[in-house]
Amino acid sequence: MRVDQEAVDSPDNRATGIPGTSIEIIEPPETGHVRHALLDFDGTLSMVRDGWQDVMVPLMVDVLRECGTGESDEELEALAVDFVDHLTGKQTIYQMIRLAEEVEKRGREPLSPLEYKRLYNERLTPIAEARKADVKAGRASPDSVLVRGAREFLEELRRRDVRLYLASGTDVEFVREEAEVLDIARYFDGGIFGALPNYAEFSKAKVIRAILSDFGLGGPEILVVGDGYVEIENARAVGAVALGVVSVEGNRYHMNADKRERLIRAGAHLLATPDLTGGGAVLDYLGV
Length: 288
Description:
By secondary structure, the chain is an alpha/beta fold. It is 44% helix and 11% strand.
């Protein structure tokens, strides 16, 4: 389900909210039914990988430059920024599939998308590891690497007996380990899911459909929370309640600058800006 651009641009979208919070009500959902909730990880709860775009785009520029087409770094960067931004929210492998396609277009034999993904993880891992090391050593608190309000929101969900699931486009082993370091893995009694070596075996849509099927749920009985258009579209496709998180991500390419508009176009019922502060009020509004 997508909302048209007129709806995105309408000033009315900023006029309705939950009193005392920065939560916007874009389209009132059906309330009083939520029993399960699926949450995205990076950018929604965790900031361990914040700035990942500043790693991915330069890698792609390096790869495309080697094709020897004479394109400037600025041209290659603009191309990479466009498709990386467009594919954000999907598994990382999809961005690497597109990179391989761009190499092939330039008459060169690409590496496999999995190999490009490995090279990307090699560059990103030291950044994520440094942040986790600070938490493990006590130099930083787990909450300092969480989106503001995330822990309180998770605690409120569990206090209200909502069954929680974590689903991310990041490799599942990284998601599980990082959730443990941030001390939030314990909230997800429904399970933690992420990208698999065979990328076709996992998607957020599959996890959502499995929850609905396993528990015989109707759409409004599941709340989907995320900062990407993918999980919001997945939620609306099955009639679930969709809460978009307009979190601020650090990257020099200004990617996700239009995150609010993108989440509205994807069909978000509610928007939390710029973080999950006020999450308890959202649950009150939803009748949880």
